[in-house]
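Weekly structure sync, notes
Attendees: PL (lead), two postdocs, one rotation student
Agenda item 3: pending single-chain targets
PL asked that the sequence for the first pending target be pasted directly into the notes so everyone works from the same version. It is reproduced below exactly as submitted, 78 residues in total.
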Amino acid sequence: MLTLTLRHLERDGLVTRTVYPVVPPHVEYRLTPLGSGLLEPIGPLVAWTRAHRDDVGAAQAVYDAEAQPSRDGITPER
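Predicted structure, written out during the meeting:
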């Protein structure tokens, strides 16, 4: 999944990929100028996720607890 995501970012021009001919294989990814241009607009989103990490985790725990199968093996509908 990570490889596919990185390949898509490379295709979109957001990262460059450099393969070094060594054993074991070594691959390096770097942001392009286009990719670096995303740092400023994404900053507020990153700040929001850091500030609300615990809230999101709590919401996930509540959801997961409610989605647990009952003793008869049937997951309750939401």
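Discussion points:
- The first helix runs from residue 2 to 11.
- The mean pLDDT is 91.
Action: rotation student to compare against the earlier draft before next sync.
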